[in-house]
Design a protein that fits this description.
Immunoglobulin-like, eight-stranded mixed β-sheet, seven-stranded mixed β-sheet, rod-shaped, cell adhesion
C-alpha cells in the first residue's frame, strides 16, 4: 500500500463520494439507515490505539475518515502518517491501528460502510491520556526568618494533574488543598528544609520533585558549659550556637579578645567552639565570654573556669 496525498473531491471514486455525502460534517445524517452510537476509547500517550470496525460481507465498500479527511478507502491508504495502518484479523474486520498515539490524534474517527442494502457509519472518539509531568518548579531558595515565601510547581497531563505539597520533616506534613502555589507567611527556622511537589493523575505514577528552602536566622547560644580544673592540668570550655549561616566565634577574657597563644587554643567547628587551656594556672581562673555572630545578629554567653579546690 502506498500512502497518497488527500485528493480533490473530483478525483475520488464514486463510492467514496457517496460515503462522504453521508457525512458532510463528520457525523451521521438522518438519511443513514443504520447508525451506531459513538464509542469512546482511551489510550495513554505513546501506546497503540485500535479503533474497531466490522463489515457485514466481503463486498462491502468501506473507508476510515476523521475531521481532516480520508485515512483509508478500502485497502488504499490516503493518509501520509506512517503510524496508521489497517488491522484485519479476519475478512470482516476493518479496524484502524494508530501507533505511538499523541495528543493531536485525539478526536472523532468514522468508519463508513456501503453495503448493497444498508449504508452505515460507526464512530469512535479517541481520548489520549498523558502521564503527569512537572514542567516548572521553584529553584532552591534562601530567605531570612520572617519573610514571606511562595513556591511554584506547574505540571502538565491529561486529565489535569492534581498538585499537592509536603514538607519533608519527620512528621511529613502535607498542606491542605491542591495548589500550584504554596505560600508560607512569616517563615520560621522550623519551616526550613525540603518541600516536595507531587503531580498525580490516574494515568501513571505521580511525578515528584523537590525544592529546598534555607531559612537564615541570627545565632542563639544553645549550650555554654563552664568547667573546673586543678592547676597544672588541662581545662576545656565549650560553647554551642544555633544559626544560619553558620556563626563565627570569638572568645574574650573580661574585655580582651583571646587568641590562640600562650597556652590557650580556640577550635571552632560548625556550630561549636572550644577554648582549651593546656596548663591551668591561677591566672586562668575566672569569667570568659563566648561570642557567636553571623550577618543577622550577635549573641554571647558567660562561662567560668573554676579552681577544682574551690570556687571564688
Amino acid at each position: 500500500m502506498v500512502a497518497r496525498a488527500q485528493p480533490d473531491r473530483k478525483q475520488l471514486p464514486l463510492v467514496l463520494l457517496r460515503l462522504l455525502c453521508l457525512l458532510p460534517t463528520g457525523l451521521p445524517v438522518r438519511s443513514v439507515d443504520f447508525t451506531r452510537g459513538t464509542d469512546n476509547i482511551t489510550v495513554r500517550q505513546g501506546d497503540t490505539a485500535i479503533l474497531r470496525c466490522y463489515v457485514e460481507d466481503k463486498s462491502s465498500k468501506v473507508a476510515w475518515l476523521n475531521r481532516s479527511g480520508i485515512i483509508f478507502a478500502g485497502e488504499d491508504k490516503w493518509s501520509l502518517d506512517p503510524r496508521v495502518e489497517l488491522e484485519k484479523r479476519n475478512p470482516l474486520e476493518y479496524s484502524l491501528r494508530i501507533q505511538k498515539v499523541d495528543v493531536y490524534d485525539e478526536g472523532s474517527y468514522t468508519c463508513s460502510v456501503q453495503t448493497q442494502h444498508h449504508p452505515k457509519t460507526s464512530q469512535v472518539y479517541l481520548i489520549v491520556q498523558v502521564p503527569p509531568k512537572i514542567s516548572n518548579i521553584s529553584s532552591d531558595i534562601t530567605v531570612n526568618e520572617g519573610s514571606n515565601v511562595t513556591l511554584v510547581c506547574m505540571a502538565n497531563g491529561r486529565p489535569e494533574p492534581v498538585i499537592t505539597w509536603r514538607h519533608l520533616t519527620p512528621t511529613g506534613r502535607e498542606f491542605e488543598g491542591e495548589e500550584e502555589y504554596l505560600e508560607i507567611l512569616g517563615i520560621t527556622r522550623e519551616q526550613s528544609g525540603k518541600y516536595e511537589c507531587k503531580a498525580a493523575n490516574e494515568v501513571a505514577s505521580a511525578d515528584v520533585k523537590q525544592v529546598r528552602v534555607t531559612v537564615n536566622y541570627p545565632p542563639t547560644i544553645t549550650e555554654s558549659k563552664s568547667n573546673e580544673a586543678a592547676t597544672g592540668r588541662q581545662a576545656l570550655l565549650r560553647c554551642e550556637a544555633s544559626a544560619v549561616p553558620t556563626p563565627d566565634f570569638e572568645w574574650y577574657r573580661d574585655d580582651t579578645r583571646i587568641n590562640s597563644a600562650n597556652g590557650l587554643e580556640i577550635k571552632s567547628t560548625g556550630t561549636q567552639s572550644l577554648l582549651m587551656v593546656a596548663n591551668v594556672t591561677e591566672e586562668h581562673y575566672g569569667n570568659y565570654t563566648c561570642v557567636a555572630a553571623n550577618k543577622l545578629g550577635v549573641t554571647n554567653a558567660s562561662l567560668y573556669l573554676y579552681s577544682k579546690y574551690g570556687r571564688g
